[in-house]
Every structure is written in C-alpha cells, then in structure tokens.
Protein 1
Amino acid sequence: MSGIYFHIPFCKVRCNYCDFYKTTNQSFIQSFIEAIKKEIRIRRDYLEDKRIETIYFGGGTPSLLSINEIEDLINEVKTIFTVLPQSEITLEANPDDLSPEYLNSLKKGGINRLSIGIQSFSDSDLQLMGRRHNSTQAIDAVRNAQKVGFDNISVDLIYGIPGMSFSQWQTNLKTVFNLNIQHLSAYHLTYHENTSFWEKLQKDIFQEVEEEESILQFEELIRCAENNYFVQYEISNFALDGFYSKHNTSYWNQTEYLGLGPSSHSFNKTTRYWNISDINKYLTAIAQGNIFGEDEILTQIDRFNDYIITGLRTIWGIDMDYILKEFGETFYLHVEKITSKYVSLAKVKNEKKWVRITKSGIFISDHIISDYLYLNKEDE
C-alpha cells in the first residue's frame, strides 16, 4: 500500500506564522494543474506499481481549487495507479472556503475526509496569526460539512500563541469537542525564520510562552481529549477509534508515498526525493522536461533514524524484533541500552519487544527521541 500527496502551494494571504512553501499568485493555478498531471506520469514508477490507499491534498490552501480541478487530479491518479475502493482521500481546507455548495461538490467529487485549518476559535488570535476567517465561519464550516454528509472531519488547533491565556485555550478545546469531530491535530506554535512572527520575536514585540504555561496547555489538551474518548495516537494527533489519519499514519509507519508539486517530498524506503520550492522553476522544468527535484539514497543509519523519529512519536512505538531483523545487532544493542536508561526513569516502557514512550515521557519526547538516534562515529 502507498500514498499520494499533492502540495497545492496557493494561498490568498500569507499567515504570519507559516513557513510552508506557498505563493499568493493564483494566476498559476491552471498551468500548475497541467504540470502536476504531467509529473504524475513522469514519476509513475517511483512506487513500483504499489496500490494506492490514501490521497492527500495539502498546502498551501487546497480549498482554493475548484471541484473540477480536484476531480481532474484524482482521476489522473486513478488512470495511472490502482486506487483501492476504500481509499482515504483528504482535502485540507480553510473555513471561509467551505460554502455549503462547495462542500456538497467535494463530497460528490470523491473527497471523504476534511482537514479544516481553524487554529483558534478566538477572533483576536485569528487576526494576530493573519488568518482570513473568524470564529463564526470556523464553526459554520464544520457544521455545514456535517450537514452534507462528511463524517470524517479533522480540525487543526494551535496552542502557545502569544497572549493566549489558559482559560482561552480551555475555551478552544471545549468548542472543538462540542462540534462532534472525529480527529484533532494540535500543535504548539513554532517561530520559523522568515515569518512575520519570527521577526516580531527578534524585535521583542513577541515573547515566547513560558515553558510552564506550554506544559499546562499541553496537559489540558491531553485531559480534554481523553475525556472525549479521543486517543493520542501520535504526539500531536488525537482521534476517535477508527478515525486515525491513514495518510499521516503511513508516514509514521514508513509506508512509501509519492509527493507531487513544488516542495513536496517522496519516500520509497530506499530513497528520499524532494521537489524544488519554486513554482516558476517547477513549471518551467516540467515543461522543458528537465529535472525539478533532488534525491538521496538512504543509508542504513538514515533508515534507522527515520524509523526511530517516526515510530517513537506514536502509540505503537518501535519494534525490537524489526530493528534486529532490518538493521542488525549493533542497532539492536544501541536501542536496548537507551531503553534501559529510560525504563528506569519510567519515561519509556518495553512490552513484548515493543518500546513506547510513556505518558510522562511525552513531555520530554524530543530529548528521548534524539537520545535514540544512531550517530556516525565521525559525528560523535
């Protein structure tokens, strides 16, 4: 099984915190659709005829595309690949794009999962972040999606926003769970270079949230999710049973995927491939039949570290038998040594050869994961 990822780089405005590759020049959309269809054909062998179980439209703002453009891309994939009948097909969307008419067209056009980028239900937070919707539009988007028959809806929220109080975060969580969604992705605000938020941080206009407050907000997120029967199946992702994101889970489980569009990444277990992050160069290269990306052959250490980084973020953890079989005794003993250290601190548990981070370990998960990584002797 494999997945297809479309990076749709178009946005109406640039959000103040986002560092994903994007452009506000929507005049490229028509030529982009034709180019990405050509890329599908050019790179059809990357997945070696594996069947497709997930298709994901990310961005950028995929909901800027018309239903005809979305259907065109889905049909092109189905022409080139074997797409399973029960495939999960996700569209990321901004709330203000989701009119009842558009939602109805998406449902009829084959989209069966929505990921709605709400980020906050506070209008002041939304204005601060440069979002183009308000809280009323956010709530209406979810309810309208439910009315037309969407029953697999994910919402994105951000915590650690400058000026956000603990009670405001509680209100956000209460609001989102009252909407009867099936999935929640919640991320702590990160200050990325070359964003408006980063510049304000450097000028002391913004101050990062104190670590203690960040922890309190994260703890409240976990508590509310559990109270609403959501499983924290990955550090930042929560879902009702049966509604884990199949596409994102495939990333964490080392499943092959093909990324299409500027700045997209691909993985087939032996190589990683990434497209250039420039719409003009991407369009020109494809039109001229030139190279529009780069690749690297993964070493055993690369593959091991990828497995650690993705696996330990999930409830499934890492499989010691798989490590021994796939990477050998040196890597197995390395993991065994680190595991003993964190088991004694109750930050990691080892059950039937499956190593998982515990609830208390989640709060230092980045440190734990980095400790498990295998370094070249030259790098130590």
Protein 2
Amino acid sequence: MKANKLYIVLCFALLIAAGCKKSELEQQVPDQLTVDNFWTNKDRALSGLSAAYSQLEGFVGWDNYVEARSVREFYREDYVVPGADAFNYPWWTEHYNFEFTSGNYAIDLLWRENYKGINFSNQVIENAGKMSSTAIDDASKKQIIAEAKFLRAYYHFKLLNNFSRVIIRDKVPTSDADLSKPFSSRAEVYEFILKDIKEAEPDLPLRSERPATELGRVTKGAAQAYLGKVYLYRAGDDKSNATAYYTEAKTWLEKVIVSKQYILDPDFGNMFNGVTKNSTESVFELQQTADVSSGANYRSYLSDWVAASELGGYGEIYGTPRLLTEMLKEGKISNGNYDPRVFQTMYFKDAYFNDPANPRVYGSTYNATFGATAQTIAFRKWIPATPDRIGVSNAINVPLMRYADVLLMYAEVLNEQNNTDAIKYVNDVRKRANLPDAAGGNKQAVFNQIVHERVMEFTLEGSRFYDLRRWDLLGQNMQAAGRRFTADKAFYPTPLKEVNNNPQAR
C-alpha cells in the first residue's frame, strides 16, 4: 500500500465517527473524536466491535456482497451455470470460465474488504485492551476482545481459503513500514488463525447465554466449530500432517456436539427464505433486517440475483443436469418421493411442482411458470417465501456455520480415522429429512455418502468449490462439468493493487 493510504487505513469508516491524526503538529479540534479519546466506555468499545462485524462476507455494499461474493462463491462450483445476463459482465464470467486475472474487480474486493475487517478487529483488540477498569468492566472487555480475535481469524481464514499467499496483519499500522509487509507461509497463517480462535474461545459465551438482542454475535460454539473446520481444511492443505489435524478437528467439533446447544432445524427450507432466522441449527449467522429505524440498512438484493428470470428475478444463476442427477440419485426414498431437500433447494420439472391441487411454484405449477417443454433448474434457496418480495430488498439471514455442517465435518473426521461411528452422524443429518439410514460400508463408501450429503445440504452455500479442492477432486469434477479449469486457478492471484502498492508482495 502506498504511504498516502495510511490516513485512510487508520480511520474507522462505518459505525465509528473517530477522527484520525496525520501528525502531532496538526491542531486538534477540541470536540473531534480521535483514536485517543474514542475508547472511553463500553458502548464505544461495542461500536468498534460493530465495525469489525460489518465486514463479514463483504455485506457493506452491493458490489461485494450481491455481485462479487456470488460470482466468487457460486460460479466456481461445478454444478451451476450463469444466466444469460451474466455474460454482460466479464468480471463475473471470468470466474465461471476460470479466466480471472489479478485485476479482476471481485478479487480486489475480496482482498480489500477482508483486510478492512482485520484492521477494524485489530483496532478493537488494541484499543479495548488499553481501556481502564473504570471505563469498562473486566468481563465485558474480555468478551469484546475475544469476539474481535475470532473475527480477525475469520477474515484471515477467508483470505487463506482463496489466495495461495496471505499477509498476516496482526496490529494497527502506524507507519509505512507496517503497511509494506511480506507474505507469510500458509503454515504460519494457519497457526495465527488457530491461536486467535483458541485465545478467544474461553471468553466467549455459550449460545444459551446470549440474550436475544445479541443473536448473531460470536459464541463459544462458533469458535469451537471454526477450530474444527480450520483443522479439517488444514488436513487437506497439508496432507503430510493430516493425522494430527484430524485429531484436533475431532476434539473441537466434538465439543460443539456434546454442548447440546444446537439441534437441526426441522424445516430445512425456511432457513434460506427469510422465514426463520437464527434457528436452533445456527452456529454463526450473517444478520439481515428489514428494520431501518436505526438508519442502518442490513438488507440485500441477493434473492433477486439468485431468482430465475421466470420468477421475476435477474436470472443470474441456474443449476445443471449434473446437479439434479446427484440430488435425485437415491430415488424416491421419502414416502414415495425424492429427498425433500431437493425440492427446498431448487425448482425443476417434476410431479411435485406440477400438482395443480397444490401449486408450489409461487402459487403456480412448474409448467405454467417455465413452460411445458422446459427443463430449467432454478434455485429456490435464497429467494423469499412469497413472490411479492422479488424485486425489493430482502432481509434473509445467511447461515455461515450450521450444525449440519458440524455433524458432517465430524463424520468426515471419524471416517478418516477409520472410525465406523462416522455413518451415525451422517444419518443424524438424514433424519431431519425423514430419510432412511444410509448403509455405510467401507471407508470409501462412507466418504461417498458424505460427499452426497454435502451436496444435499449445502448447495449454493459456497462450500462446494473448497470441498472439492481439499478432497483433491476439483480437476476431475470440473472436467466432468466441461469447465475450463486448470490447476493454477485453484487459488486467486494476489490482487494487482496490492502488488503495485506493496513492494514486498511482488
């Protein structure tokens, strides 16, 4: 970063009105908030923490959350295809075609917004840590710092999953030398992430200890679940030490399970259409609200981006026949019908959606909506429960970590350890869908079942690309999908702006 960026980097830009000092020689306005006089009480510390939360998934803006996040998280999956309008935006389709370069706008936003979140987190950690006992009670101080450490780890983990090389930012920069930093090794970044979450975990409350007004803030369960996930991903990244990482992953995921803080939501579909928020299954969730009385607007048009044009949306993404084949592969095993999760994930040509006595496509049938000869596979996940919400901003929460993920990750770890109990946790997830137990079998058979269950559970939740990569199945699945993937596109390149502005990032 260039020296002239320093002034901007040192400022809170969202919920904090603190000013910034360029030089001690500058005259200060007496009533101006500065970094020195902002951190004076618990409410101010919580405002700083709110700024740190604000960067989750780039939710602060249309470009990064609706467009850039969607093309990064969804278009790189092998089971989707862009809609016709998407081809008007080369910076979108470059992700689908794996033709992106370091100058791609979505890549730049991913880097920038996560490092902004890291900077806000660092400000909380450093400045709340300096607050006196008269300014804030010890318990609140510890918890706020713990949340900020978790968030700092979350942002670093997001970067590490997307870029092969990452710069650790562990303090608020105060000089040009602080801004120009070299890359750390992947091992160093993993260790930094794990250290932060482990330090945070003891000072975080259980979900049941959070009042309703604090839903969405980090809990002990979230820290434990992400420790399990980070170790699991590290096992895929560093297979020579995978055995030790699986052991650690098992320890932390097991803590979430035995805590009894979470149960699977019996209504799968309502977690993704705005009806249910912070369900019993939610471990960590991006909050959205239709209440703008506070002046904040935590709503988005993601549902319009995902919804098929035939349903009144923009029609930017559709499912593929390969996805439908995978989701229907077990046949009609649920009271004479397919796995109910397929119907709650997408619309497709089937008797279920063509029942005139119970029209389920926004009060119509599939044929009436898409045409009798159509074979369109349109997503139902992330679009509102009623059609009147298409075309307007929506407040659909986004679960970032669900208990179903904890159970399936735990099953995966047990299977890697040759523990035959693995299938039990797969079947725990299947019971929510009222499905018969999967038979299990040898290690490969159980793994195959886990792969299938992750498709049924997490389609269009941004995990498929990363799952395939850590399983070393990315190349063959992209080939099967007819995609233009090459191994050098498994990670994003360092953004061009960082390369230009940071001499040590070249």
Protein 3
Amino acid sequence: MQIEYPNFKFDITQKSDTSRARVGVLSTPHGALETPAFIFCATKAAIKGASPAQMKAQGTQIILSNTYHLMLNPGGALIEKMGGLHQFMGWDGPLLTDSGGFQVFSMGHGSVSQEIKKNSRDTRPKTVLKISEEGVTFRSYLDGSLQVLTPERSIEVQRQLGPDFVVVFDECTPYHVDKSYTEKSLHLSHRWGVRCLQEFEKHHTGRQALYGILQGGVYPDLRKIAAEFVNEQPFFGYAVGGSLGENKAQMYDVVAETMSLLNPTRPVHLLGIGGVKDIFAGVLQGIDTFDCVHPTRLARHGGALIKGGDKEKNREHIVLSNQKFQYDERPLDETCACETCKTYSRAYLHYLIRASESLVMQALTLHNVAFMNRLMAAIRQAIRDDRLEAEREAWV
C-alpha cells in the first residue's frame, strides 16, 4: 500500500551533535509549526479557560481534540455539517485528533496516574464490555447507550471532524497486565492499524495525514516488533503510546529504546506527556511533539508553572491557594511577559482563588499556556545553539 501526503511535509532543519534532539518544521494545510512543539488538549473541542484567539496570542501552534468524546457528543456528522472542527470551534491552525484508543484503556483499566500511584479508590464503573477482533463495545458515559468503536469507525469519525493529523485506533495496555496479554494486544492493534490504513486510503484527499501508534508496554522485544510494523507502513508519522513503565526512569528507558528503532525522517509524537523534566528527556531522544492536559488542568486547580520550579516543594509549579502568597506582591514568574504576569500579583491571584472567582482560572490557564510555549521556543533555540543541557538546568 502506498499513501502520499501532498499537503504535508516534515523538514528537519537542525540536529544536535550530542543527542537525538532536533529542530524541524511540520507543514500542514492549516499552516506550519516549529518542532519540538507542545500540543494543548481541547478535549471536547474547547480549551478550558481560554478562547482560540487567546491561545494564539500566547504563541500556541497546534491543539488536539478527542475522537471518543466528540463522537458521543455532538457527533461527527454534526461537526462535519458545521464545516469540521476548525470552523466549528474557531481554530484556524493545525489540529490533531486522537483515535479513541486511549479511552479503551482508561474505561477498562483506570487512568495512568491511578495505575502508577496504585490508587484503588476509583469506584467508577468500567464501561468497556468487550474488546474483540471487530473493535470495542462499551456503554456511553453520557446516557448508557451501547456503542461500538472499530478501526473503520474511528477513521470515519476523524474524517468527519476534519483535523490535519489523524491517529490509528489501538488498544492502550496498562502496566499491570502481563507480557502475554500485552503481546496479544500488540498484534491486535497492528491488525487494527492495517484496517485504519485501508479505511483512510479509501477516502484520502490529501487533507489529512495518518500517524501510526507504537505499543508493546515495557518489553523491548515487543517495542521492536511495533517499530518494525510502523516503519513498514505508509504512515506520515509515529505516536509513541501505551504503558511506558511504573516510574520516570523506566519511562525514559522505554522511550529511548523505542526511538532508536524508528525511521528518523518521520515526525514522532509522545502521547500524554507534559512535565517539564519529561519533555526535556523526550526531546533528547528525538521526540518532536508532546500533548498533555497537565498545564490547563493544573491551572484549574490553582497551580502555576514557574521557570526553575518550586525548589522548596521540589515540583514544577506553585499552588496559589497556599497562605504564604496572601501578601506576595510579585508576579507569578518574573521571567514571564504574559498578560497574567504583567497584570496580577500572586496576592491577587491567591485572593481570587479564596473568593472562588472564575477569573483566576483564565488567568492561570493563559500563564501556563504561555509558559509551555515559551519553554518549547527556548528548547528549539537551545538545540540550534547546542546548549540543551544548560537550558534544561534553567527550567527543571
């Protein structure tokens, strides 16, 4: 099978001499973005706490929406009738949709964070009824209706949504399942991947590009099988997914092993990773794009990302609800020129949280978005200047 992507291009403009880090330009029908880049999550076709215009004003290049949520509400057909996601939500830049495969994992097994923290308090009913060769049968979290998501259906809905980048449907296995299950799931995902390619090719107009996903859990031999599969298929790019381990060290090892096996000419996305330390680790291994809900979710809980982090608490952010900020006249981050840092003091933001004023969510969201975009711009320049390690010391 041969699939051409005439309206897409990935140009690597500079490579590091000491690592796999690289700077590139990813061209799409809705404009180009510089990589490494961060993709913000507009899960239900909206960034919580910021408009598309505000996202652009903070330097955002690309956003992501979720196929699973949008197929349930309002539905792919309605969004297609409204002109696709770009027109529906008022975003004119590059856009990616995931396949719904991660929801197979989260609905059937719980979230990654719950797994790593061994959190047994999640009492939500698991809505996945069956995972079969055909696809996944589950009940909608909205109304309990019976739903079937197949590789063909996932690609169809993503075609209706109209993003630039489309992702194949897969099963994302958790860390706690054994190797036998992981291997069976890997081969199932590969068969689903071939079906995704076939469905994609049937209606391909050159307006979308397809990413293949690499699974295989923490097992090097399975990750090698996954890499061989995606290298042989006509995917535009790759998305590294699945369980990456039970701790950060193991995650970095899995990513490094996976990246060593991939065709270096294609763009690579790392799914669901957004911590500052993790981004630097991924960039050093050649990752081009990242996505995570972390920056905007953190803002909704009163957290602000700070360059250099909160050394006292050994974390990347400060929590403005903390009493120590009641009389703090400083901006959130004295190195940041975003509207929030130019306008509000930590004391005022602390007050807004305590007063339950919604303005604070927007203010912190815009700051965290600006922070992530500033971080990625700094990383790109550091790669060009061959000083990535020094830049990491300034941010982590």
Protein 4
Amino acid sequence: MAVPSETVTKIQGARPASIWLNRWWHIVDIRIGIVPLPILIILVGVILALSATGSMPSDMLVNIALLSVGGFLCAEAGKHLPVLRHFGAAAIFATFVPSYLVFAHILPATIQSSITQFTASSNFLYLFISTIIVGSILGMDRHILITGFFKILLPLAAGSVIAAVAGTLTGAALGLGIRHTFFFLVVPVMAGGVGEGAIPLSVGYSEILSQRPGDLLAVLLPPVMLGSLMAIMIAGALNFIGKRYPAWTGEGRLEPDEQGMSHSADAPGATPDAETIAAAGVTAVALFLVGILSQRLWHWPAPVVMLAITVLLKLLHAVPPSLQRGAFVVYRFFATAVTYPLLFAIGVAMTPWKALIGGFTPANIITIFVTIAALIGSGFGIGRMLGMYPIDVAIVTACHGGQGGTGGVAILTAANRMQLMPFAQIATRIGGAVIVSLGLIAFFETML
C-alpha cells in the first residue's frame, strides 16, 4: 500500500487547505498499487453492480478497471506476506490466485468471460512486451548491446546442457525413466512456454507416436507451469540475496562496466513532451508489426525479429536521443502500471489450475526443481566466471525455464528487474526454439 511521504497542503495560487480537506487528500493519496483507495472502492462497487446485471462488456475501459483492481489487490496481498514477499509472492499471487478463482468458480462468469475475451482479442501481452523491449533497449548504454548480448549466450547454452543432464539423471533415479524424464519433463521446462514450446512439442510428439496432440499436451503442460512457478520463486529469492550481497548484482545490469538504463531522460531540460512519448509508443507498435509480418511470411518469431531490429537501430544511431528518452518513459509506465494487471489477465485466461496442480507429484516436483535449480545455478556460476553480475545472469537464465513471455514477465517482476526483458526474450524465444527443435529431432531418432 503506497502512501506518499507527505500530503500537499497547498495548491499553487490557492489558499491553504482546511484540516478536513487535508485529511481527505491524505486518504486519496493512499494507493493499492497505483490505484487511489477511494477509487478502488468505487471500482469494486461498479464492477459488482455490472456483474449483477448478467453481462459484462469486454472492452478496454471495463478491463482497465477489472485488471487494475484484481492485479493490484493480489500483488498487494503478496507484498505483505512475511518471508514469502521476498520470493516473488506479489507476482505469484497476481498470476495464480485468479487461476484458482476461475477453477473454484469464485470469480463470476461474467468477469471471467470479459477478461478472457479482452485478453484474446487485444494482444495485451504483446503490447506490453513490445513497449518493454523497445523502451529498455533504447534506454540502454550501447556498450551492453555490443558485449552483453554475446556474453549471455554462453551461460544460456551451458546452463541448458547442465540442467538437461541434472534433471534427466534425477528423474531416472526416482524411477521415472531416462526417456520419459528428458522428453516429457526436462524438455518442456526449457521449451519456451505453452504457445512456443508445449504446443509445438505436443504436435511433433503426436505425429511421431500417432497419438492425439491434446492428450500429449495435457502431459506437457504441468511441467511448463510448475517449472515457471519455481523459476519465479527462485528469482524472487535472488533479488533478496542481491540486497544482502550487493557486489553480486548490477540491479538490472549484466556487467560491472555497463551504464544500464540511460537516465538522460531525467536530465534537466531533457524530459520528453507528450508528443515524443506518444511517438515512442507508436514506434514500438510499428516494430512489433514488422515482426508479425516476418512471422507470417517466414515463420520467424515476431518478438525476436522486433528485438533484432531495435538493437540494430540502437547500434546505428538511427533513433534520435529525444525519441529514445520517450521510449524510456513508455517503458517505465508499462513496467509500473501494467505489469500486475497483465499477470492477473494471464492467470484468468491462460493459466489452467488443473494443469498446474496436475504436475504436483513428488517425483515430478523434485525433477523439475533440480532442472530449474541447475539452470539458474549454472547461470550464476558461469556469469561469475565471466566477470558478470552473477545474480542478474542467473535471473536471465531463469527466464529460460519460464512459461514463455508470460513467465518472463512474472520472473522479472518477482526479481524487480524488468529492464532485463531483452535478454529474457533471448532466453525464452531463441533458447526455447533451439530446445524444441533439438528435442523433436532427438525424440524422432529414439523412436527409429
């Protein structure tokens, strides 16, 4: 619950506020997330009244209210849990509480339907990812793009191999079998999520085994969900460890010589105006649409194409400083105001509770935990060997075990390092595509 350090008692050109008015302003300044407390109460009443009418619109205005109330309430509850708040409880609550509410039929069907339709039709997730990627890249020091992008590939590659070996041996020791463990637990965990990982794997496995893709998808979903949950919790723990050992973390930077996010937008006289901020938002959307076009023409992942183009524009100095500052402001807005509402939407529309709890068998839990821990631990160790900040490198490798773009958002939120989103996209999109390709090839070879 956010309360500003002091309540303004004077408005420029006006008389000093009365005691009662000053108290009212103090109440309005109490916020749940970004929502003022009185506005939150009003929104809850309006939402319940609309739901009671038997229908709930699925437009943007209604869903701004729904997702803001749900996302920030869940996140606020997670932030106040003793101990667990240091392990990403806010992000976990914002994602998994709504999933349970849907499963238990506690969330009214009208609200669930409105959120699901809005999430599916609005491409809410990709708008968030595009603004975060473009804003964070254009706000970085150029040196990170020259050295950091190449350096992160080694921890990701080595971590994937170490995690695959550790997870497979663990599953085999627990009686799950080498083949089942590798192809149905370890590979899905690092495959890049549901849409880019579990679904392509289920289709590929079904063609090889002559089974229905849906049956195989039901087997592959729990490891993806469970692995992402574990990655979120470990990322939250890494953020806590970073507070204790500040020498191990760059707070969103991978190397000690990086400048991280450019703060030139905060320099005197450099604050971008409204037109520049709007132009930066349109630029982010345009770059993502270029990625969408390339995906339709050549089947290249749209976020990766957008990331590559943005990096190229940054390296070539093709974007003027004013627009870069505008993109950084857009990034900060989405990271602050949209993250928890987005996670709430993901929980309602994209995170089936049955699939999540279906993987909670002791052998599966241990195997997936070892896989995720080996992935993140190797990232930490290799990052330290390379002279990088080990905690930040480990958080990026954690995204390789997340639930695609949604998992990356939750992991970085739990770790309070949203500026690492470009590297998270490398881990999930490129790393996931490599794992899916190699996994299908290996699966086919084992069936010959």
